[in-house]
Design brief:
Helices cover 47% and strands 19% of the residues. With 262 residues, the chain is an alpha+beta fold. The protein folds into 2 domains: 153 residues, 2-Layer Sandwich (Enolase-like, domain 1); 98 residues, no CATH class. A 3-stranded antiparallel sheet has the order 3-4-5, covered by helices on one side. A two-stranded antiparallel ribbon has the order 1-2. Strand 1 and strand 2 form a beta hairpin. It starts with 7 loop residues before the first helix and ends with a helix.
Length: 262
């Protein structure tokens, strides 16, 4: 982030989620189109409900029919985009064909043209504030940048570990680090199948056993803190003693999470 306070808003809205874009063919090249309502939603997150602290005012639509041989009708749109921190707002403009003049739709009526022209003007106005600037600056033409954005957005969706899962991960990582280097990369791949259940080899079973011990200790501490009762503790402990697969352990963890969240 820049130290320039004038770029604070710009830098908070300049990055675009690749999932909200699509390539649109235009002649011999392609454009990156951005989902319109994702921008409106982002503005709402920042400033609140549209029409309250931000939105458009003084809208004006004019329809024109130039004196030409063809039946060409187009419209112009103008308004003021206002938002927190602006004094007079930003003038926004757009134009659109009401009756198509070229292409396969020539002479046909452009349905929803009022909605289209108003939306186009609004998104252009938001772009002047920095919304989705990375697209307008051509950064989406760089696949490396797009992949970096994909990774960033994926991380945002990741659900943080619950305390019990964090403890299991800590234990598993601890014992993984004690294994010879040649085993670490293939540990998850060395398994056999039994009745559709993935049964890990003796090597990985050691780690699963240690995780089970860790869960037992974790549950025992919860019992001592009066967060679970003795019956629940004993029941889950018995299941942990016979658990053989990662799926079985995951089911036990889910049960414990539900119990401790009551």
């Amino acid at each position: 982030m820049s130290d320039n306070i004038n770029l604070a808003l710009w830098e908070s809205v300049e990055k675009t989620n690749p999932d909200l874009t699509k390539e649109v063919p235009k002649g011999s090249f392609k454009l990156t189109a951005i989902d319109t309502y994702s921008r409106i939603k982002r503005a709402t997150e920042l400033w609140g409900q549209c029409g309250n602290k931000w939105g458009v005012k003084n809208e004006k639509i004019e329809v024109h029919q130039p004196p030409t041989p063809m039946n060409w009708i187009y419209a112009t749109y103008s308004a003021i985009l206002f938002y927190p921190g602006s004094t007079e707002g930003i003038p926004i403009h757009s134009d659109i064909e009401v009756i198509y003049s070229v292409g396969t739709r020539k002479g046909k009526y452009n349905e929803d043209w009022t909605k289209k022209v108003a939306t186009d003007a609004l998104t252009k106005g938001l772009s002047m504030l920095g919304f989705n600037a990375d697209v307008y600056l051509g950064m989406f033409e760089d696949m490396k940048y797009v992949q970096e954005r994909v990774v960033e957005e994926t991380k945002k969706k990741e659900v943080p570990d619950t305390p019990i899962k964090a403890e299991c991960r800590r234990i598993a990582n601890k014992y993984m680090q004690q294994l010879p280097a040649e085993y670490k990369s293939t540990l998850r791949e060395t398994f056999s199948k039994d009745g559709g259940n993935v049964i890990f080899t003796t090597l990985s079973k050691i780690i699963l056993d240690q995780v089970c011990v860790g869960i037992k200790n974790y549950l025992n501490n919860l019992y001592l803190a009066s967060k679970i009762d003795k019956t629940f503790l004993e029941g889950q402990s018995k299941l942990l003693e016979i658990a053989k697969t990662e799926k079985e352990i995951d089911n036990i963890i889910s049960t414990c999470e539900k119990e401790t969240s009551k």
